[in-house]
Write a structure and sequence with these properties.
The complex is a heterodimer of chains A (about 100) and B (about 475). Chain A is mainly alpha-helical. Chain A is about 35% helix and about 5% strand. In chain B, about 40% of the residues lie in helices and about 10% in strands. In chain B, strand 2, helix 4 (about 105-115) and strand 3 form a beta-alpha-beta unit. In chain B, helix 2 packs antiparallel against helix 3. The radius of gyration of chain B is 21 Å and the shape is globular. The chains are: A mainly alpha (about 100), B alpha/beta (about 475).
């Protein structure tokens, strides 16, 4: 399996990675040898074999439950925001082009 | 008496119990060693001097009151930079998390703190634990304590060097495909990857969640047992942590009656250095003189395991690392439209190896390829697991070299991803199968260290560690 530079550029777009031309070329080249290596699994006979899933010793699914954060924790979360508007997280608008 | 920072945890604990040393003295000795050596070695990314001394004082106060918390009370340790400690920085060796402050405690660090351990600081690692040399840290490489031109292995290279150069008494590492065992091997220390599910991953910055496991890196096998006892257990915050009975050390004096399998592929495969062959063969002979019953076994899919790993791991990486988007924490490029904010923040914050794996994962999961890569790899994973189940019907343990090479020079494998990936050829199948394994040093002749890997049955760390301890003692007699 080989990928073209255009295919790698498409993966970079899906992965939200802004890669310059030179890096795209390098990645495309690396992909060649890596895919050649991992393609050894294509030779394994997997007829009738089920994909592996987590063993039953673990706890399985649970409800997603919110918990109260104390004031100090809350403050730490807020100070990690790259940009704040008061206690709110400021983010670029989804439909806007920002003024520089 | 040895300098205090050179003590094992077992030795330090004995002296603490006898009242011959204090936690303050142990901690000061480690801090002094960090000051003398770490400028050259760069194992630590941050040292918590003041907090460490305060924790040591509290441990000494508890001892004076007769309320010692346990075997780790007052013991100075280091934690890998991907384990959260509330209020402290944690970057996973990445620029994208520069300046990030942990908002909660990881379960492992909380357990160490609750057991009275003194946290000396956070130590270096390959970015997001992706690498086998610690050259991929965004904060500069860590150097091998015996030769500054060589790598310490990775990704837990900072932990390995902090232990090997006596800048702490023990450390935690994390292991997704060999990241505890390979640097332990290259630095001449003990490194244990527990069974998947033995130790909670809550608060560990995830690389590949179905393979990641936290474990101890120490100066002797018994120390690893002490640390594992402290950090193990089911956790309500990690659904994959297991309800299996807790590990309790059970030390035997010999290997009489223990059947050990030697996979023929391990010593015949290409790329195993002569020194590794020679020293691990001597260790196998030591297993025999300690009474073990050695049998040659066939472990199929030895080669395919690495291929399976390099499909499954990037898939999980591409999903896990999508959270680093410049929005809620970490690096954000400002003044750009939304798409560019994501794409430029990530391209600037991530190193090349991280981006390579994100892209590889996006490919293996993409429509049209997912069946040929991800799903197929999950099926081969089932076969690999079955191969281990089959092997363990006849043997108690399996032994291999830990790494095919000794510590290599900086830059040697940086431009050849496959050469770097092959460092993990003996360690990855253990993660793919989920079994526990330990690397212990084979020799102490002053040359580049060589480790031997013992692999155990699921949740049978007791047999694994007991055998490792017997081998450790036997090798000391032989050398």
């Amino acid at each position: 399996m080989k990928l073209s530079k255009e295919e790698v550029a498409h993966l970079a777009k899906l992965s939200r990675l802004d890669l310059p031309e030179q890096k795209l070329e390098q990645m495309t080249k690396d992909f060649g040898s890596i895919l050649e290596y991992v393609d050894s699994i294509q030779k394994v006979d997997v007829e009738g074999v089920e994909p592996f899933t987590m063993p039953s010793k673990s706890q399985g699914w649970r409800e997603d439950v919110a918990f109260e954060a104390d004031e100090a924790t809350r403050e730490l979360i807020l100070t990690n925001f790259p940009e704040r508007a008061g206690d709110l997280l400021a983010a670029p608008g989804v439909f806007e082009v920002p003024k520089k | 008496m040895k300098p205090l920072n050179e003590l094992t945890i077992v030795e330090a604990r004995e002296l603490l119990d006898k009242g011959e040393v204090t936690s303050r003295q142990l901690t000061e000795a480690c801090l002094q060693q960090i000051k003398s050596l770490d400028g050259a070695l760069h194992a630590y990314l941050e040292v918590y001097e003041e907090d460490a001394l305060a924790a040591a004082n509290r441990a000494d106060d508890r001892r004076a009151e007769g309320s010692v918390l346990g075997p780790l009370d007052g013991i100075p340790v280091a934690i890998k930079d991907n384990m959260l400690l509330q209020g402290k920085s944690s970057t996973a060796g990445s620029k994208i998390l520069q300046g990030y402050t942990a908002t909660y405690d990881s379960t492992v660090v909380k357990k160490l703190v609750d057991a009275g351990s003194v946290i000396l600081g956070r130590v270096n690692m390959d970015e997001f634990a992706m690498g086998s040399s610690t050259e991929r840290s965004a904060y500069g490489p860590t150097k091998h304590p015996r030769d500054p031109e060589r790598v310490p292995g990775g990704s837990s290279g900072g932990s390995a060097v902090a232990v090997a150069a006596d800048m702490c008494l023990g450390a935690l590492g994390s292991d997704t495909g060999g990241s505890i065992r390979q640097p332990a091997s290259l630095c001449g220390i003990v490194g244990l990857k527990p069974t998947y599910g033995r130790v909670s991953r809550y608060g560990l910055i995830a690389m590949a969640s179905s393979l990641d496991q936290i474990g101890p890196m120490t100066k002797c096998v018994e120390d690893s047992a002490i640390m594992l006892e402290a950090i193990q257990g089911q956790d309500k915050n990690d659904q994959t942590s297991s309800d299996e009975a807790y590990f309790k050390p059970f030390w035997k004096k010999s290997l009489q009656g223990v059947k050990i399998g030697l996979p023929k592929q391990a010593w015949t495969s290409q790329g195993v250095e002569d020194r590794v062959k020679e020293k691990t063969e001597a260790a196998v002979a030591a297993l025999k003189s300690a009474g073990a019953d050695l049998v040659e076994i066939d472990l199929p899919y030895a080669d395919e395991a690495l291929a399976v790993y390099y499909i499954l791991m990037p898939c999980e990486v591409s999903a896990n690392l999508s959270r680093f988007d410049g929005m809620r924490y970490g690096l954000r490029k400002q003044g750009l439209p939304l798409f560019e904010t994501y794409a430029q923040s990530r391209a600037e914050g991530f190193g090349d190896e991280v981006m390579r794996r994100v892209l590889l994962g996006a490919f293996a999961l993409s429509s049209g390829y997912i069946d040929a890569y991800y799903v197929r790899a999950k099926k081969v994973q089932t076969l690999i697991r079955q191969a281990y189940e089959h092997a363990f019907q006849n043997v108690d343990l399996i032994v291999t070299p830990t790494s095919p090479t000794t510590a290599f020079k900086f830059g040697e494998k940086m431009n050849d991803p496959i050469a770097m990936y092959l460092e993990d050829v003996f360690t990855v199948s253990v993660n793919v199968a989920g079994v526990p394994a330990i690397s212990i040093p084979c020799e102490d002749d002053g040359g580049m260290p060589v480790g031997i890997q013992l692999i155990g049955k699921w949740f049978d760390e007791a047999t694994l560690l007991s055998a490792a301890r017997v081998l450790e003692a036997q090798l000391k007699t032989d050398n």
